[in-house]
Specification:
Helix content: 10-25%
Largest sheet: 5 strands, mixed
Distance between the termini: 43 Å
CATH architecture: Beta Barrel
Shape: globular
CATH class: Mainly Beta
CATH superfamily: CheA-289, Domain 4
Number of helices: 2
Number of domains: 1
């Protein structure tokens, strides 16, 4: 019996200058763009909160979380709602601004390798960049991303994130 599946599914999320590869199981839903309710005093990457399924979910720019410019939304923008992998984020979800419609991909181990030419800081929300066929997406550190969002959300009193 095999310990690992022969292939897994992921979602290739288009960002402004690159793509983000997240495990399919982490994605709760992809929805149309909605303007978030801004949070006073939040860093530029913390775009605010959106209403999703009766919850107030924090929305971020992944590029901004990495220290890059925050790309403005376009007509093609979508919101990728991720299930939180820890209990750090009160809402239980994080939304990421996507610059287009994410694509479902099958990931086979024989076609994937880590790009050793690119490294990321320990406090980066990126684990690594991989090479898979003709794509070179970055893989998020979801625990780190959640810690970043939780720390900024907690720092903003009266933000209305309850319930």
């Amino acid at each position: 019996m095999q310990d690992r599946p022969a292939e897994i599914y992921g979602l290739m999320v288009p960002l402004d200058k690159e793509r983000l590869l997240v495990p399919r199981g982490c994605v709760a839903e992809v929805v149309g763009y909605q303007t978030p309710q801004e949070m006073t005093g939040a860093p530029p990457w913390h775009l605010g909160v959106i209403n999703w399924n009766g919850r107030k979910v924090p929305m971020v720019s992944f590029e901004g979380c990495c220290g890059d410019d925050v790309a403005p939304p376009t007509q093609r923008s979508r919101v990728v709602v991720l299930n939180a992998v820890s209990e750090q984020v009160q809402a239980g979800y994080i939304a990421i601004l996507s610059q287009g419609f994410p694509q479902l991909v099958r990931i086979s181990p024989e076609f994937v390798k880590v790009n050793a030419n690119r490294s990321f800081a320990d406090d980066s929300p990126i684990v690594c960049q991989i090479q898979m066929l003709d794509e070179s997406p970055v893989v998020p550190d979801l625990d780190r991303l959640e810690a970043m969002v939780a720390s900024e959300t907690e720092a903003l009193p009266g933000d209305g994130l309850e319930g």
